[in-house]
What we know:
This is Anti-sigma factor RsbA family regulatory protein. By secondary structure, this protein is of the alpha/beta class. The protein has helices at residues 25-41, 52-62, 81-99, 120-130, 149-158, 177-184, 203-213, 222-239, 283-290, and strands at 16-22, 46-50, 71-74, 103-107, 136-143, 161-163, 168-170, 197-200, 243-250, 253-260, 293-299, 302-310.
Amino acid sequence: MxxxxxxxxxxxTGLAHEGFVFSSDAELVERVVPFVLEGFRRxxxxxxxxxxRVRSLLAGQLGTDLGRLAVFAAAETWWRGGHGTxxxxxxxxxxxxxxxxxxxxxxxxxxxxxxDGREWSRxxxxxxxxxxxxxxxxxxxxxxxxxxxxxLAAVARTHPLTWDGAAPAPQPAYEDPACFLHRAQPxxxxxxxxxxxxxxxxxxxxxxxxxxxxxxGRRARLGDVVLAAHELLVNxxxxxxxxxxxxxxxxxxxxxxVADAGPGLADATLGYVPPDPAxxxxxxxxxxxxxxxxxxxTGPAGTTVRLxxxx
Length: 311
């Protein structure tokens, strides 16, 4: 294993984000063990968060060196939904930044094998933007025997680096985060002709309208719907003198749409980026986290956001 270059030319001053797909125990061990040992040689904190199988393999290979890991944890307990998981991850990264000049993480997002965990691919994409200056190497482990083909395709599209057998190399399928999110969000279809469209000039007006428009069978989500729409309306009314509020039902989802004729969003990924504790801007993050899904269409002619609330 000594001929491998586990982190290539990474100098520890910014994020390196590698998607490693393995098909056998031997492939996993040959990639991860040198990665861990290199971290020990460089006196970097090494964190491993993985599923039971991966942890067992690494424990057998590392022996007494297992105790040198800064973290050795079960990934199975970490899933809290996309926003909740990223928020906890963000908190841990900021704590590490305060303590260490650089560190490395080998993580296996086992929840990608679950239907409700596939949204994590969107957060993997956004990490390339919101953590690009964080000084750590993120080696993301993906088991080809467990994950569906579409999830593995998303791994390539959301990780700038891949393993070429000897060193990290640029991933040719990698996409800009905004481009990936645009493709990953619910398909954008025309608003139904029968959907009510209300001009709104204040968030309170929108809240009152939604309290009436929400169907009786969905009243359990009233708080989420009203608060999420309020945040969108605050943003929309900051960009234009009025907004349009519309609602309809699409299959099992209640859809809330807020549209404005402002200049468009400077960054369409904001709903997936944890708010900076220093500036307190959290509207889109909160709205996205309260909904079950979201989609955005933005440009010079304005912005339209749709939130989906399932029963």
